[in-house]
Write a structure and sequence with these properties.
Oligomer: single chain
Low-confidence stretches: 12-21
Order of helices and strands: HEEHHEHEEHEEEHEEHEEHE
Shape: elongated
Number of helices: 8
Largest sheet: 3 strands, antiparallel
Helix content: 10-25%
Structural class: alpha+beta
CATH architecture of one domain: 2-Layer Sandwich
Length: 262
């Protein structure tokens, strides 16, 4: 047998150990008809929708029901905000910043502004807000003609009809509770960790008292120094503290640090 015929034969037969194998068998034809199963599924769905109501809605004339805790755009309750900046630090896309606006009495205050063009609708700002000023809203239709229109200021973030269901409570379970047999016990994150003072580093500059948004820090006299000047040290009221870390971040000598509760 010449070489050309041998190549042609090997294409349709199996050669093992120099012996000619059985003729080549074609694959199962049913496997080749892979399009039949999805086509049959589509046909069954088509048959149902012909006799019944279709599964789609005429958007935007018809809309599906959205729950109140749906994570749409962020919302802000202006009067509850304390300007702690927690939402700014926790935002994963850095779309939030504090800007100066006037409150109802005309006084300048700092409130969050959100760039909706970068917002991921994750709800972290509402989760970490210690006073529940930031909330989630069911609004998701945010299309605009310019990027500037996507900047939502503090007043524009207000959502009419905010309910307690739009608040996102960030609760954690402590390892100590699990070890003591209370795995179902929950704690609010803002009520756990507290700043702790290292007195040897403190210089009594009063900066921590100035930056505390809830007035939880007061300076107290702890005697006098060699020059006869009073020694001031911060006293933290744990009942007011929201653990925003502003005092820790602004301390020039790193005398304050967050003590984690485990």
């Amino acid at each position: 047998m010449d070489e050309s015929k041998l190549k042609y034969l090997n294409k349709y037969t199996d050669i093992k150990n120099g012996a000619q194998g059985k003729p080549y068998k074609t694959k199962n034809l049913a496997k080749g008809l892979w399009i039949v199963k999805p086509a049959w599924t589509v046909f069954k769905l088509f048959s149902k929708t012909v006799a019944r109501q279709p599964v789609t809605v005429l958007y935007p004339y018809q809309k599906e029901w959205v729950p109140e805790n749906y994570r749409g755009r962020p919302g802000l309750r202006f009067d509850k905000c304390v300007s702690c900046g927690m939402c700014v630090r926790m935002c994963p896309t850095s779309c939030i910043k504090l800007i100066e606006v006037s409150d109802d009495d005309g006084k300048p205050v700092m409130r969050p502004q959100v760039n909706m063009g970068r917002c991921a609708m994750c709800g972290y700002c509402a989760e970490y807000c210690p006073v529940d000023a930031m909330t989630v809203t069911p609004e998701y239709e945010l299309a605009e003609y310019t990027r500037f229109d996507l900047l939502y200021g503090p007043r524009r973030l207000h959502y009419e009809g905010t309910t307690p269901g739009m608040e996102v409570k960030l609760e954690v379970t402590l390892p100590s509770d699990i070890e003591s047999g209370n795995p179902e016990k929950r704690h609010l994150l803002c009520e756990l960790d507290r700043p702790e003072l290292t007195e040897s580093k403190c210089i009594g500059c009063k900066k921590c008292e100035k930056v505390c948004p809830v007035g939880a820090i007061k300076m107290e006299e702890k005697g006098v120094n060699d020059k006869g000047r009073p020694i001031l040290r911060p006293k933290i009221d744990n009942s007011k503290c929201i653990c925003c870390s502003n005092c820790v971040d602004d301390c020039p000598k790193s005398a304050l640090a967050i003590k984690e509760v485990l």
